[in-house]
Amino acid sequence: MNTFKTPQISDKIWVDEILKSYYAPSMEYSFSTIFLWADIYKTKIRKYKSCLLARFSDNIYFFPAGNDEEDIKSAIDWILKNSSSPVVFSGLCEENKSFLEKNYQGIFSFSENRDYGDYIYTVEQLSTLKGKKLSSKRNHINRFLENNPDWRYEIIDDNNMGEVLKMHGEWEIMADAKSNKGLLQEGDVVRKALKYYNELGLSGGLIRSNGEVIAFSLGDELNSDTFLVHIEKAFYSIQGAYPIINREFVKANCMNYKFVNREDDTGDEGLRKAKLSYYPYEILKKYRAKS
Q1: Alpha-carbon distance 290 to 240, whole Å?
Q2: Domain-by-domain residue ranges, the chain?
Q3: 127 with 250: CB under 8 angstroms?
Q4: How far is the C-alpha of 82 from the C-alpha of 27, rounded, in Å?
Q5: Does residue 2 contact residue 46 with C-beta atoms inside 8 Å?
Q6: How do residues 87-110 score in pLDDT, each as one tens digit?
Q7: Fewer C-beta neighbours within 10 Å, C or N terminus of the chain?
């Protein structure tokens, strides 16, 4: 593992071992995130001493993941020595930024990247939707319950995965995904997630109404107190479909955690509005460092 390579499903074992010892609140530090988006971002990974390194081009990296500060510093030194200039570290959390500021004074310039800030909510908040601020979400769910009296929540497994794929294909047509590069890429990620669903150890759930799948969600553990939601899809035409899959998925999968990370908005205005409408507990600040 002395050279960078495209992540394979077999890499999950050693990557997870490193990430379990490296408490990170951000979505980047999930093998599922790395693996599922690897084709889109041309991701390469390698092990350096006790650290995981991830590279997205000749000179764009995530901050090395590991729990040994000397190994992390050695990894950064190696990157600076062996990469073309300038070197860029993307997706930095506050502690990563502080590490670079302390150990590499004058080497990096920093800028905040709001588009890649993770939306973090409490499990209690999303599972109960209590409070005046979230009353509109409860109202949408009430309308859904009135209009879909036979609805039910199901765990995604081999028996209903084909229906999930079918529903997603229909969702793409309705969203005119063919004319939207981002949605096309996301569609590839969804199909890859379902293909490797069991190997990745993902948790998934769907909402069914009138016998048809109308919404689904996929995710897995990010760290000991945070569950990471990778995918959420519902038919826009069905009032309350998004709020009901959000709530029921959290109730089914996240009650042993304190927080839910619902990833970033990549600067998409519609997505940002939707994520803000749930009044996040925190929008995790992310920074970019350039040498």
Answers
A1: 43
A2: 9-116, 118-263
A3: yes
A4: 27
A5: yes
A6: 999 999 999 999 999 999 999 999
A7: N
